[in-house]
Every structure is written in C-alpha cells, then in structure tokens.
Amino acid sequence: MRLFYILKRIIAMLRRENFFKVMLITFIVILSGSTGFVFFEKDTTFADALWWAVVTLTTVGYGDISPESTGGRLVGIGVMIMGIGFLGVLTASIATIFMEERLLENKGMKSTQVKNHFIICGWNFRGEEIVEELRRDPKSADVPIVIIADLPEKPMDDPLLHFIRGEVRSDILEKANLNSAQSVIVLSDDNLDAYARDAKAVLNTLTIKNIYPGVYACVELMDAENVEQCKMAKADEIVVLGEISTNLLVQAALDHGITRMISELLTNRYGKEIYKIKLPPRLANRSFFDVMCELKKEYDILCVGVEDSKNVISNPDSNYQVAKDDRLIVIASERPDVT
Predict the structure, then answer these.
(1) Topology (CATH) of 272-339
(2) CA distances from 133 to 138, 139, 259, 266, 267 (A)
(3) d(CA 70, CA 74)
C-alpha cells in the first residue's frame, strides 16, 4: 500500500509538470526524424535511423551515422532544433520534481516512514548538541532522527535527520511515525518563561503518551516542582536542568574537580562514558562483588550499578544477588559487548 501511494504521488507530480506531454512530443520528434531519415537516406535501415535520431536529439553526436543527402541534413537540423528545446523541458521537469521534494523535506512538510528512530519534540540551543551526542555513540550513529518543531526549516544538515514542522499534535506525530520510534525526547521551549516551558513540556508529554503509550519518553524540565505533574503525564524519565546544575555546583564547591569527571561520563565526545548493558548469562545469580570483579578483570569495565525491573540501584551491597534479567550500569571507554 505504501509503495502504491508513493507511485501515485510521483505520477501526479509528473502530470502536473506536463512530463507525459513532453515525453509524447519527444517521441514524435524521434519517430518523425527516423522516418524522414530513412526516406532521404535510401541505404539506411529504420533501426539505424532510430539510433541516429536519438543520438542527434540528445546532442551526443557519435558520428557513426550521418546524413549525406540534403533532405537528410534538413531532417537532422529539424531534429536538433526540436530536440534541444523539448529535451531541455524534459530535463527541467525532472529536476523540478527532485528539487520540490528536497524543498518540502527542508520545510518540514513531508511525512516520514523511518522506524526504530529517535524523535526530538521541540528545539532549543541544546538540540544540536543532543543530535551530536547521539551520532557519537555507535548504538545510535546510524539511527534516523526526526525533529518535530515549529521552525521555518530543517535546523541541521544531517542525511539521517528528518524534519516535521508543527506543534505536538496527533497528525504531526503520525507524520513522524511515532508509533515505530524507540524513544522520544521532549525539549523545553526557551522562548517561554520557566513555568510556561514546563507546562508546555508536560502537555506535550501527555499528548504523546495518550496517543502512543508504548513509546519511551524522556522529558526536559526547568523546575523540580513540576516533576509530579510530569510523572502524572506518564513520562518515563525526567531531567530537571536547574536541579542538575545546582547539585553540580554544590559538589564542585565541596569536592573540587569532581564536575570534570561527571562531564566526561556524560558526553560521548571524549573520555569514558556510562552505559547500560545486559548481564552475561554466566554471571547470573552471583553477587554484585563477583560480577564487578569479573567485568573489570575480563573487559576492563567498571560496574557501578544494577537496574532491576523496578529501580536503578547505584553501588549495591557486595552480597547483592544479580538476577538474570537485570541490567548493569557500567563505565567504559566505548559501548562494551560482553555477551
């Protein structure tokens, strides 16, 4: 059905650009030129004349076949004059179609059918950094990203970046194919005051989760007082920017230099990063201490926490039993493969 829709749309654009009329006229010119060439050039077959007409029309001019009679040369002049005009129109029609498609994509007016992608709702100065961070991680380096924002055009030049213009509504979410996305990031609107930013973020989250409850929603808030409302909107993870910066400043004052380590762990651009990985089956039902030592010894990665079905536990007790379905929070120089 999707292929049929695409073909139907292409045919409609070709009709609008009079592509088929130009093709028909071009065919008539080739056929007429071939017939005239055979009429004046008695020793030429129609197949050779057809070849000559196409070569002449496209101004390639191989020279393997050329008219010798005056009539044949006049036919050649007619084919060249008509051919240059209609071939130019034909080329321009095809170029217009491709340029229009690119223009519509840059203006955010086209739907997308990508799957297992990331969606960013809203756009601010942190948006470009988010895209760059996603591109730095091998897990998401080649994953399509769709931006939903009320912007005049696509904010970044990235071949795997798609842009849908508009606010978070059901029709816009459908255009972004949110039902097939693996995660959605809801950014705050920097053009509003702090309270209005959070209100809009909560409303966008509520809209997304009501229509597509299965999608994983990560939401950016400015004020910790609005976390409860965001949880009621069924956000899966909430990042409070003001709270994080406050905590980092306090830790920087208490333990000098610690923020440099935290910054390193939070970026994919340099140093080591924090990852969540599956527990190797051979380490199931063993103590956290054994798991930590085993991973450090075999893979030189540091396990700092465990995620069970309900919570994330940082630095569990040494005797904590790691279950087979748990996930490990580790620090490594690159995304580890311990399967």
Answers:
(1) Alpha-Beta Plaits (3.30.70)
(2) 10, 11, 19, 9, 7
(3) 6
The residue assigned the tokens 């509003």 is 192
Q: Which amino acid is at 155?
A: P
Question: Over the stretch 75-97, which tens digit does the pLDDT of each residue have?
Answer: 878 877 777 776 677 676 666 66
Alpha carbon of residue 210 to chain centroid: 24
Whether this prediction's pTM lies above 0.70 is answered by no
For the stretch 14-64, pLDDT in tens is 565 566 777 777 788 888 888 888 888 877 888 888 888 888 777 666 666
Domain chopping of the chain, boundaries:
2-105, 118-245, 272-339
Q: For residues 89 and 234, give the distance between their C-alpha atoms in angstroms, rounded to a whole number.
A: 55
Residues 302, 336: contact at Cβ < 8 Å? Answer: no
Q: Which of 26, 33, 42, 31 is nearest to 77 (CA)?
A: 33
